Amino acid sequence: MGAETVEIDDGELIRRSAHDPEQFAALFDRYARQIHLYAARRLGTQAADDIVAETFLAAFRRRGTYDTSFALARPWLYGIATTLIARHRRQEERMLRALSRTGVDPLPEALADTVTRRVTAQGRDRELAGALASLSRGDRDVLLLVAWEDMSYEEAARALDIPVGTVRSRLHRARKKARNVLGDEELS
């Protein structure tokens, strides 16, 4: 049964969950960690726990409205998470502004990741945090979905329920603003 669940696409799992709600648990298994990492990077670990729980609860409640012709539910789940994060955005902005002022990242990460990132970033965290904090919520959402979560423009558009052209223009604005802070070579 486990092997069968892995083979089933997200749309089919959601469809099946209408009659067998336990099928929905496979989506949690597939995406909870990714959603948690995304939320933790934006709001901190404690808030991320809540965001994950709220995201999957909202998704479960709305599963009847999901268009099962989409095989991947990832953009839909990220859209829900991003909406919930917006409710916590003041906390995100405070965290980014604190990082910009102090240079101390309040989020824990693995030692190897810390060393690698610190060596390559060479103190640019404060400047990047300042640039992120200065972006509009919409521009920041697009930039982080594309950059951190490796979403295509189409996936980000679906996640945020906006046209692909809007994703492109928001990403362009966000990159331009970040380039002004970090220099052209950082975000080519």
Automatic annotation (TrEMBL):
Family matches, as InterPro entries: RNA_pol_sigma-70-like, RNA_pol_sigma-70_dom, RNA_pol_sigma70_r2, RNA_pol_sigma70_r4_t2, RNA_pol_sigma_r2, RNA_pol_sigma_r3/r4-like, WH-like_DNA-bd_sf
Gene3D superfamilies: 1.10.1740.10, Winged helix-like DNA-binding domain superfamily/Winged helix DNA-binding domain
Signal peptide: none
Domain RNA polymerase sigma-70 region: 27-94
Domain RNA polymerase sigma factor 70 region 4 type span(s) in chain numbering: 126-177
Pfam families to which the protein is assigned, alphabetical: Sigma70_r2, Sigma70_r4_2
Keywords tagged on the record: Sigma factor, Transcription, Transcription regulation
Family as reported in the entry's similarity comment: Belongs to the sigma-70 factor family. ECF subfamily.
Protein name per the record: RNA polymerase sigma factor
Lineage, uppermost ranks: Bacteria, Bacillati, Actinomycetota, Actinomycetes, Streptosporangiales
